[in-house]
UniProtKB/TrEMBL annotation:
<dbReference type="InterPro" id="IPR006129">
    <property type="entry name" value="AdhesinB"/>
</dbReference>
<dbReference type="GO" id="GO:0046872">
    <property type="term" value="F:metal ion binding"/>
</dbReference>
<feature type="signal peptide">
    <location>
        <begin position="1"/>
        <end position="18"/>
    </location>
</feature>
<dbReference type="GO" id="GO:0007155">
    <property type="term" value="P:cell adhesion"/>
</dbReference>
<comment type="similarity">
    <text>Belongs to the bacterial solute-binding protein 9 family.</text>
</comment>
<dbReference type="InterPro" id="IPR022434">
    <property type="entry name" value="ABC_LPXTG_lipo_actinobac"/>
</dbReference>
<dbReference type="InterPro" id="IPR006128">
    <property type="entry name" value="Lipoprotein_PsaA-like"/>
</dbReference>
<dbReference type="Pfam" id="PF01297">
    <property type="entry name" value="ZnuA"/>
</dbReference>
<dbReference type="GO" id="GO:0030001">
    <property type="term" value="P:metal ion transport"/>
</dbReference>
<dbReference type="GO" id="GO:0030313">
    <property type="term" value="C:cell envelope"/>
</dbReference>
<protein>
    <submittedName>
        <fullName>Putative ABC transporter substrate-binding protein</fullName>
    </submittedName>
</protein>
<dbReference type="InterPro" id="IPR050492">
    <property type="entry name" value="Bact_metal-bind_prot9"/>
</dbReference>
<keyword id="KW-0732">Signal</keyword>
<dbReference type="InterPro" id="IPR022435">
    <property type="entry name" value="Surface-anchored_actinobac"/>
</dbReference>
<keyword id="KW-0813">Transport</keyword>
<dbReference type="InterPro" id="IPR006127">
    <property type="entry name" value="ZnuA-like"/>
</dbReference>
C-alpha cells in the first residue's frame, strides 16, 4: 500500500501553485493513522473522533476558498503518506483538489466522500436552486450522466470545445467569480486552433456537473457556434469522442429564422453533453421536469433588450472598449463555481455534522480496529458536544425577533442554516454578475434592505474583497456589515464548534 511513498518523483502530479503555509507533515514513521482531508472543517471533525490515534492534514488551508484552491507540492507529499482520505465532495472543492487527491493516494487507501456517505446516517440534503427570474435565457454548460460504461470516476473530464463560429461580429463566452474577474472560455476573435485540440476554446467539467456562463456578441445578426465534446476517463487514456453540434443564436433580430424552429428565450437551459448516450443537446428546465431540444431545430434568442455597455476596467477589455454596446446573455448565478444538483455545505446544520462524525467513526474503526473503544468514546463525547451546539445555535436565532430574521450574503452557502434554524436567506443575485451591478441593480438591493428592514448583511471574512457593492449599499443605508463563516477557519474561528457559535452570536447580535 505504501510503495508510492518511496517514489514521489514518479507520481502523477497536476499543475500546482505554491501555497502560503506548510501543512502538517504526514509520515510512514509515525504510529498514528495518517489522515488527509480536503478542508479544515473536515480535519477538525476527524481530530475529535480520532483523538491521539490520528494525525490529520487539511489540503485547503485556513482563510482559503475551497471552491478555487490549487493544491501545492507539499499537499501532494502528504497525500502520498495518507492511510485514509476524507473529502466533502458534491463538488464543494475545486476539481484540481479532487484530482490531486485521487491521483496521488496510495493504492488501496480508502477515500470517503462525506456529504454523500452521510445520508446513510440521516444527513439531510438540499437541492441547489438557480435564479431563473431573468428576463432573458440563462444558458449554462452541463455534463450529464455517470459514464459507468466507460468506468468514469470523479476525476474524469468532459471537454467541450468550440471549433468554429460564424456571424457578423465577435462572440465570447466566459465565467466570472462573485464580483470578480472574468475567465474566458470561448472567443471567436482570436480564431480556433485545431493543432492544439482547440485547447484555448475548451470548457472542462467533471461528470454530472454544470456551470454558469455569460455569452456576449458585438453585432446584431445570426451566429452559429460549432461545438464538439470528448470524455477523458484518466489523464493517460485516449479521449472518447462524444459528438458535435451547432448552436444557433439570433442576436437582436427575429429568431424565427425558419418555420417550425423552437425559440428559447427565457428560463434555465444548458448546453448538455450526455456522456452515457454520446449526444450534445439543449436541456431546458421546466416545472414539469426537463425538456430536450435538438440544436438543429432550435434558436437561442438574444433580444434587443440584452444590449449592455462594456464596463470600465482592464478585466473586460476582451469585450471591447468601455462604453461600447454589446449584446449579452447574463450568467444567472453569482460565482464561477462548477457544481452539481445538491448544496454541498451540509455542516451549516449541526445535525448533518453529527452524521459526518458517525461516518468518520465507522471509517476509522474499519481502518484501525484496535482503536474501536477509543473511537466510540471520542464520538460519544463529541456528539454530545454537537447536540449542545445545535441547541445553542437554535437558542440564539430564536432570540432574534421574527421580523428581523433576514439573511443577506453574497455566497450561497447557508441554505442548511436557514432551513434548520428558521432564518430565511434574503440575499440578492445581480442579473449580470459579470460586471459590477448597475444603478438599477443597486437600487433593487437598496429596496430589499429598506422593504425588509434588514438590520445587517453578512460577509465571509475570506470573501470580503469580492463583496464591495454589498458593503457600499449597506453603509449607504446605515445597515451593519457583520461576519459569518461558511467553509473556512481563521484565527477567530479555529474549529467547527467555534465557527458555528460565532455565526449564531453574530446573527443574534447583528439582527436583534
Amino acid at each position: 500500500m505504501k510503495l508510492l511513498r518511496n517514489a514521489l518523483a514518479g507520481l502523477s502530479i497536476l499543475p500546482l501553485i505554491a501555497g502560503c503555509a506548510p501543512p502538517p507533515a504526514l509520515t510512514d514513521t509515525d504510529g498514528r493513522i495518517q489522515v488527509v482531508t480536503t478542508t479544515g472543517i473536515l480535519a477538525d471533525l476527524v481530530r475529535n473522533v480520532g483523538g491521539d490515534r490520528v494525525l490529520v492534514d487539511a489540503i485547503v488551508p485556513d482563510n482559503a476558498d475551497a471552491h478555487a484552491y490549487e493544491p501545492t507540492l507539499r499537499d501532494v507529499r502528504n497525500i502520498v503518506y495518507a492511510d485514509l482520505a476524507f473529502s466533502n465532495y458534491l463538488m464543494l472543492e475545486a476539481q484540481n483538489v479532487i484530482k490531486t487527491l485521487d491521483a496521488n493516494l496510495p493504492d488501496g487507501v480508502e477515500q470517503i466522500s462525506l456529504a454523500e456517505g452521510a445520508t446513510k446516517y440521516a444527513a439531510e440534503i438540499i437541492p441547489l436552486v438557480e435564479d431563473v427570474s431573468l428576463d432573458t435565457i440563462w444558458l449554462g454548460m452541463r455534463a450529464k450522466g455517470d459514464g459507468a460504461a466507460h468506468r468514469v470516476t470523479r476525476s474524469s473530464d468532459v471537454r467541450v470545445s468550440a471549433t468554429g463560429v460564424t456571424g457578423p461580429g465577435r462572440m465570447t463566452a466566459y465565467l466570472t467569480e462573485s464580483f470578480g474577474n472574468p475567465d474566458t472560455f470561448l472567443d471567436s476573435g482570436d480564431g480556433f486552433d485545431p493543432a492544439n485540440g482547440f485547447r484555448d476554446d475548451t470548457m472542462i467539467l467533471p461528470p454530472d456537473a454544470h456551470t454558469h456562463m455569460s455569452w456576449a456578441f458585438t453585432e446584431p445578426g445570426v451566429y452559429r457556434v460549432t461545438m464538439r465534446a470528448e470524455l477523458v476517463v484518466t489523464a493517460d487514456s485516449k479521449p472518447i469522442p462524444l459528438g458535435d453540434q451547432t448552436l444557433t443564436f439570433a442576436v437582436g433580430v427575429d429568431p424565427h429564422l425558419t418555420p417550425g424552429v423552437t425559440v428559447l428565450r427565457g428560463g434555465h437551459t444548458d448546453v448538455t453533453t450526455d456522456i452515457d448516450s454520446g449526444e450534445i443537446y439543449l436541456r431546458e428546465d421546466q416545472d414539469a421536469g426537463e425538456k430536450r431540444h435538438d440544436p438543429a431545430r432550435t434558436v437561442i434568442e438574444v433580444p434587443a433588450k440584452a444590449l449592455k455597455e462594456v464596463p470600465a476596467g482592464p478585466g473586460f477589455r476582451f469585450l471591447g472598449r468601455p462604453g461600447t454596446k454589446i449584446y449579452q446573455l447574463p450568467q444567472a448565478v453569482l460565482g464561477r463555481h462548477v457544481h452539481g444538483e445538491i448544496d454541498p455545505h451540509l455542516w451549516q446544520d449541526v445535525g448533518n455534522a453529527q452524521a459526518y462524525t458517525e461516518l468518520i467513526r465507522d471509517t476509522l474503526i474499519a481502518a484501525d480496529p484496535a482503536g474501536t473503544a477509543d473511537y466510540h468514546a471520542n464520538t460519544d463525547r463529541y456528539l454530545a458536544e454537537l447536540s449542545a451546539l445545535d441547541a445553542y445555535v437554535q437558542e440564539q436565532i430564536d432570540r432574534i425577533p421574527p421580523p428581523n430574521r433576514h439573511l443577506v450574503t453574497t455566497h450561497d452557502a447557508f441554505a442548511y442554516l436557514a432551513k434548520a434554524y428558521g432564518i430565511p436567506v434574503a440575499g440578492f443575485v445581480t442579473p449580470n454578475p459579470a460586471v459590477e451591478p448597475s444603478l438599477a441593480d443597486r437600487r433593487r438591493l437598496t429596496e430589499t434592505l429598506r422593504h425588509l428592514h434588514v438590520r445587517a448583511v453578512f460577509l465571509e471574512p475570506n470573501l470580503r474583497a469580492r463583496s464591495s457593492t454589498l458593503v457600499e449599499v449597506a453603509e449607504q443605508e446605515d445597515v451593519r456589515v457583520c461576519d459569518i463563516y461558511g467553509d473556512a477557519f481563521d484565527d477567530r474561528a479555529t474549529d467547527y464548534t467555534a465557527l458555528m457559535r460565532f455565526n449564531a452570536d453574530s446573527l443574534r447580535t447583528c439582527l436583534s
